UniProtKB/TrEMBL annotation:
Family classification: Belongs to the heme-containing dehydratase family.
Name the record gives this protein: Aldoxime dehydratase
InterPro entries (UniProt xref): Dimeric_a/b-barrel, OXD
Reported cofactor(s): heme b
Annotated SUPFAM superfamilies: Dimeric alpha+beta barrel
Enzyme class: lyase
Record keywords, A-Z: Heme, Iron, Lyase, Metal-binding
Assigned EC number: 4.99.1.5
GO molecular function, one term: metal ion binding
Domain of life: Bacteria
Length: 349
């Protein structure tokens, strides 16, 4: 049985595991594995926000322009598109893009094609909101888990390989123990969110500065290829419980250490909704995410519902990726977004 931790990142463990050495997981799961030597990755959430039904065409044109800027050698290795309506009744189109080389991302984001567009006064005057939330964890600062080994989403789509069955799953605390860094580091946070420039209440351009070990989770559910009866079971019996939990984090997350939670549905370039959802959540720490998962009623209901019906949902594809990163490897930028958008919500408290 494989370990989720890449052999080249294995070291003598100074922090204990939560299961005995002879632990055997109850079902198979897998992790993404780098096919070539990489040291750091980039995930960037690029969003377009609009407030009224009169602007969708303009917003989709802006999203398509962002995608057009991905062309060239420094563009991302993978990206996907999604839509969600937030609790301020604003519509959000989001492109989540991945790079395996922070230097390539830096060249892309600073290129005239991208920088001139982002920094143009037109972004302040075209009636749309924009956000760009980017974090760059080192390889030892993130983990992945999938219930399958083919066509991995998210960061798995660019890592290039996948493990065999892994040992570190099926128990509370296994998420943390899939982090290579967890062998020697508790990954405690430092400090809080601060406004580096601008004022969220005034709109315009705002930059929020993060802190060490903010945790980011992307957790997905894909029913596109499930049989009709399994799709109905998931959508009617399981998804409502999941939505309740995601809405709790969206609306009340600050009480449990969640800075931002977006539960999104995948779309194509024309905006057609696809049979896949995922959340992107930013947390004050990995420990805060763990506490909610292990103890909060909203997550325990999700967990219990999935466990109860898992045996009948073999075609439902579930996964997540979780990372922490250094404060210097995070940027959160907003243009004309409402002040409860993303990281601005809690920095305004």
């Amino acid at each position: 049985m494989d370990s989720a931790i890449d052999p080249r990142l294995t070291c003598p463990r100074t922090l204990p595991r939560r299961v005995p050495e002879d632990y055997q997981p109850p079902y198979p799961s897998y992790s993404a594995r780098a096919a070539t030597r990489i040291d750091q990755v980039v995930m960037s959430c690029l969003g377009v926000q609009y407030a009224t039904e009169a602007q969708p065409e303009q917003a989709f044109e802006a999203m398509q322009h962002i995608i057009s800027m991905f062309s060239g050698p420094d563009g991302p290795r993978h990206h996907d598109l999604s839509y969600h309506r937030d609790n301020q009744d604003h519509h959000n189109l989001m492109v989540v893009a991945y790079w395996l080389d922070p230097a390539a991302y830096a060249r892309w984001s600073s290129s005239p094609m991208v920088a001139d567009w982002w920094e143009s006064d037109d972004r302040l005057q075209d009636g749309l909101g924009y956000f760009r939330e980017t974090h760059c964890p080192r390889l030892e600062q993130f983990e992945t888990i999938y219930g399958y080994q083919n066509d991995l989403p998210g960061i798995g789509a660019v890592m290039g390989a996948v493990t065999g069955e892994i040992n570190e799953h099926g128990y509370w605390g296994s998420m943390r123990e899939r982090f290579p860094l967890s062998q020697t580091d508790w990954m405690w946070p430092s400090g809080g969110l601060t406004v580096a420039s601008g004022n969220p209440a005034d709109g315009g351009r705002v930059v929020v500065k993060g802190h060490d070990n903010i945790a980011v989770i992307r957790s997905g559910q894909d029913w596109k290829h499930a049989a009709p009866d399994q799709q109905s079971l998931y959508l009617d019996k399981i998804q409502p419980t999941l939505v309740d939990g995601m809405n709790f984090l969206r609306d009340n997350g600050q009480a449990v250490g969640c800075y931002s939670n977006r539960f999104v549905q995948s779309i194509d370039l024309d905006g057609t909704l696809l049979g896949e959802t995922y959340n992107v959540g930013h947390w004050s720490s990995l420990a805060a995410l763990e506490r909610w998962a292990e103890t909060h009623s909203t997550h325990l209901r999700i967990f219990a519902t999935f466990v109860k019906m898992a045996a009948t949902l073999e075609e439902l594809r579930l996964y997540h990726e979780v990372s922490v990163s250094d404060g210097s490897n995070q940027t959160s930028e907003y243009i004309n977004c409402h002040p409860a958008t993303g990281m601005m919500r809690d920095v305004c408290r």
